[in-house]
Automatic annotation (TrEMBL):
NAD(+) binds at G185, G186, G187, V188, V189, A190, V191, E192, G272. It comes from Streptomyces doudnae. Pfam families: Pyr_redox_2 (PF07992), Pyr_redox_dim (PF02852). FAD binds at K55, G118, D312. Residues 360-466 form the Pyridine nucleotide-disulphide oxidoreductase dimerisation domain. GO terms for molecular function: oxidoreductase activity. InterPro entries: Class-I_Pyr_Nuc-Dis_Oxidored (IPR050151), FAD/NAD-bd_sf (IPR036188), FAD/NAD-binding_dom (IPR023753), FAD/NAD-linked_Rdtase_dimer_sf (IPR016156), Pyr_nuc-diS_OxRdtase (IPR001100), Pyr_nucl-diS_OxRdtase_dimer (IPR004099). Keywords: FAD, Flavoprotein, NAD, Nucleotide-binding, Oxidoreductase. This is NAD(P)/FAD-dependent oxidoreductase. Disulfide bonds join C46-C51. Its EC number is 1.-.-.-.
Amino acid sequence: MTETETIAYDVVVLGAGPVGENVADRTRAAGLSTAVVESELVGGECSYWACMPSKALLRPVIAQADARRLPGLAQAVRQPLDTSAVLARRDDYTSHWKDDGQVAWVEGIGADLYRGHGRLTGDRTVTVTGPDGTRTVLTARHAVAVCTGTGAVLPDLPGLADVRPWTSREATSAKAAPGRLLVVGGGVVAVEMAAAWQALGSRVTLLVRGKGLLNRMEPFAGELVADALTEAGADVRTGVSVTAVTRENGTVVATTDAGDRIEADEILFATGRSPRTEDIGLETVGLEPGSWLTVDDTLRVTGNEWLYAVGDVNHRALLTHQGKYQARIAGAAIAARAAGEDVAAEPWGAHAATADHAAVPQVVFTDPEAASVGLSLAEAEQQGHRVRAVDIDLASVAGASLYGDGYRGRARMVVDLERELLLGVTFVGPGVGELIHSATVAVAGQVPISRLWHAVPSYPTISEVWLRLLEAYRDN
């Protein structure tokens, strides 16, 4: 093993996923020298095992479902999806798990890329161990940004490793549809992968420990998605936990707390995420290895002047788009501090990730789609707001009929009655993913109800749901 001389930068970024890339982009744009360290593929989880491959799998599923509701088109799409073609397109979306293009992008912004495992080894210092064992010591004049993301959590079941379970990585990169797929979990990964593989030829059984699906959204979101999965042929069981799992002659056998024995070809555990901070040297700077990193709104780690934690590792919002938002905030804050400028860290300031608290949008790409931003009714009430929920059947909106026969959906806005502002909005139904940004603008912008009346939705689109919601609020 050899060790190079120490190389100094203004900023060192640990992790070259979308979050790390955006931190590097913003600090380079401010003229700061920046090093980026990555132990896997440049582009990270989102590009190869999460957002991009999962949506490539799901887009044909949603398109086919939409087409089957349209007279004149339904007959033409009665055949099952061409699974091999869908998987081939998925492979193209992931660049066949090659990161040449993303490497070129990092180099194109003028950042230096170091491949290998990076660990904090003291104040403002990162040591990178390359694939050949060579060590490079990087120092940061202004900031080290931890952008290492999260990994899947597996339950503590005896012999689970011998079963070779799927996590989200295997579920999004599988080369063929298993004949029978058992999915454990009720969150976004679980329902999206259940929807995808059921449509691609698997017989899916979905086991949910809680009372329903998507428990961080309004209850009706999980109910509508569960109904659709059941109608598509999936077996959805709630209030069930797996107590044991084995693989016998190639078949997975899961035992539940109800005493049921379920057989499958593969089992996917989508039961949570943990921070990838267990082996990055946190102990050398007084922090607990494997912990979530607590940050202020400028994304600086609590009690530290130079260490930032951006994206999933701070546990504020485990979403790629929210991590990239944080990265833009963090990059600007790092640059301002490096230049000795004032940092605008007040709520909604240029260096404050306020949206993490108030206006986090999310889309679940099932059929129907589920999309939400801000607080649910229950969350708003728990926080002590005096609120009113306004609900609309989306099928009553003229634009919904354009999506074909049997449209089912629902919309809810949660109104702060003291200020007459929106605290949260939820849409469930075909096509609602493209509605959620308008809701995000209304929530983040704190647009008064009185002003929303003058944002006229185009006819006939499903965005006319805004008019129906406002009318319901006015008239009831």
